[in-house]
Description:
44% of the residues lie in helices and 6% in strands. It is mainly α. The protein has a four-stranded mixed β-sheet with strand order 2-1-3-4, covered by helices on one side. The radius of gyration is 44 Å and the shape is globular. 27% of the residues are buried.
Amino acid sequence: xxxxxxxxxxxxxxxxxxxxxxxxxxxxxxxxxxxxxxxxxxxxxxxxxxxxxxxxxxxxxxxxxxxxxxxxxxxxxxxxxxxxxxxxxxxxxxxxxxxxxxxxxxxxxxxxxxxxxxxxxxxxxxxxxxxxxxxxxxxxxxxxxxxxxxxxxxxxxxxxxxxxxxxxxxxxxxxxxxxxxxxxxxxxxxxxxxxxxxxxxxxxxxxxxxxxxxxxxxxxxxxxxxxxxxxxxxxxxxxxxxxxxxxxxxxxxxxxxxxxxxxxxxxxxxxxxxxxxxxxxxxx
Length: 284
């Protein structure tokens, strides 16, 4: 029978919303480090973390956030390092740097690509084929590199589980559960061997239970997306009272044509009507 290690780590309260890989990573690390981490039951995302009291402890208002007598920390990897203890962090400088390397690569390369593939299946993002195609290309590139690296290794760094293994495994978990069916897993046999080793550790299953491998890849759920993104109801414009129609204005009567001024008759010269005389003045 498994015996819980004596508490040797820290005790504190974890502020987070449920079922996110980052918070689960912290809880799993606490299992390894013998820390007591209690998830706050009264936390509401977007409400609690916007209060002045929360901001006084965690200025950036981000979660997961950890409050303890040792101090307050508002970063996933920093919290996991604290509650997980030195065994998960690494015993020497080079080992710690190698562990940090895998954690940062998972955060910047693996996690964003996985989210863009998974979010449409959860109805959180539209089914943008170009975005998903680029994400699959980035994800496959990461997995191919990991496949070659793990060809002769059981763990990512050294000969025992570290935060490197736990971080990458937690960020891969939903992909193995929802997307990577048997055919897809056949391309990544080394990664799959390593993944099932880490995800079935007792410290891991005590937090997240067993993880089933995908049999049929999830697809975009249009109904779920519509439910998560309801269209705003159209606001009806108040009806304006109809004004009574004005009687059509009668066409103005055509203006009478202006009288043309009469041409003045040329005045006749006196005696113009008399017969011309027969007298020839030139011969006179």
